[in-house]
Amino acid sequence: MRAAILGASGLVGQELVDRLLAEDAYSEVHVLVRRPMRR
């Protein structure tokens, strides 16, 4: 499965990215951000 997240650098978006990356069900996670992420 694939996921796309808009606003991934915010508090909720960052948590969602972390959870999706931890799931084996997602093979791709694409993010759209205005500022760099803290990874």
From TrEMBL:
Coiled-coil ranges from the UniProt annotation: none
All residue ranges annotated as the NAD-dependent epimerase/dehydratase domain in the record: 4-37
Pfam families found in the cross-reference section: Epimerase
Protein name per the record: NAD-dependent epimerase/dehydratase domain-containing protein
Annotated source species: Salmonella enteritidis PT4 (strain P125109)
